[in-house]
Amino acid sequence: MEQAAALLSSQMGDVPKTAIVLGTGLSGLTDSLSVERSWEFTHLPGFPRLTVASHPGRLIKADMDGSPVLVLDGRAHIYEGYDAKEVTVPMRVLGSLGVEQVILTNACGSMNPASISGDIVLLEDHINLMGVNPLEGPNHNDWGPRFPDMSDPYDGALRHMARTVASEEGIALREGVYVAVVGPNLETRAEYRMLSRMGADVVGMSTVPEVLVARHMGMRVLAFAVVTDECDPDNLSPISIDDVLAAAAQASGPLERLVRKIVPRM
Asked: Lowest CB count within 10 Å: 161, 182, 194, 258, which one?
């Protein structure tokens, strides 16, 4: 991580204070950016090699309508065979570079009957059912405290601002609790019932490890989940990755517009 941070620092110049992580099917946002420079994950020390086709694996320094940003175009997942520390190396490097705030995005399934495919959900809290934590093991005190507080993992002020922007732009924005599981299989009917009864609105296979590391390092977090499948256990239909990508594409336009309006206000 130190090697990657040193390499990037020597090549990047001024480091943007805001970073964005693009989840499954959401890489289209990069098409409209003014890219200054990009680095393949494969060329950065310690960065995971991504195996999911919809995650390109690039770090991009770009201009978004006058605001400098760093973009992680894709992420690694624990189901690819990595551990929690390995999937969060990019987030650790962002923190080491001096990034102060991150916008995380992902694709998810929804147990909440009020949310349908294509909806954007503003995450207000999470439940970690991955069985692992990237903060396990020796603590590096220069990164953060041994026991970081998680009373407000998704920054309240940023969430308020996101709701305001969504209202101004006429973008429907749900709110909910995200539960993280390892995957890669989707859940059974019984598992969806359990997750819903636990208080979760949406379920996915990422994001929470990144949130834990970001908060450990003092970064503010804002996160959006795009609903790609409706998980009603009494009316459950099979779904494929093509269905997931199509649903993510459906929401990518409004989500991109929302992010573009939010970044200058952060």
From this structure: 182
Quick: pLDDT tens for 109-144. Answer: 999 999 999 999 999 999 999 999 999 999 999 999
Closest Cα partner for 88 from 152, 125, 140, 123?
Answer: 140
**CATH number for position 218:** 3.40.50.1580
Assign residue 58 a region: left if phi > 0, alpha if psi is -120 to 50, beta otherwise?
A: beta
- Count CA atoms closer than 13 A to 248's CA, side-chain side: 23
The model's pTM is 0.95
The total of structural domains in the chain comes to 1
> Which pLDDT score, from 0 to 100, does residue 54 have?
75
85: domain range? 2-265
The helix (run of H) or strand (run of E) holding residue 244 is helix 241-262
Which is nearest to 84 in space by CA: 36, 49, 132? Answer: 132
Give the separation between CA 159 and CA 110, rounded to whole angstroms: 20
Residue 94 CA to residue 183 CA, distance in Å, equals: 26
Burial class (CB in 10 A: 0-12, 13-18, 19+), 222: buried
Per-residue pLDDT, averaged over 87-91, amounts to 97
Closest by CA position to 50, among listed 21, 30, 29, 28: 21
| Closest among 205, 208, 245 to 117, alpha carbons compared | 245
